[in-house]
Amino acid sequence: MQTITREARSCWLAGVSFGSWISMQLLMRRPEVQGFLTIAPLAKHYDFSFLAPCPTSGLIVNGALDKVTPPEVVETLVKKLKTQKGITIDHVVIEGANHFFEGKVDELTALCDAYVGRRMREMGHE
Question: What is the mean pLDDT of the chain?
Answer without folding.
Answer: 91
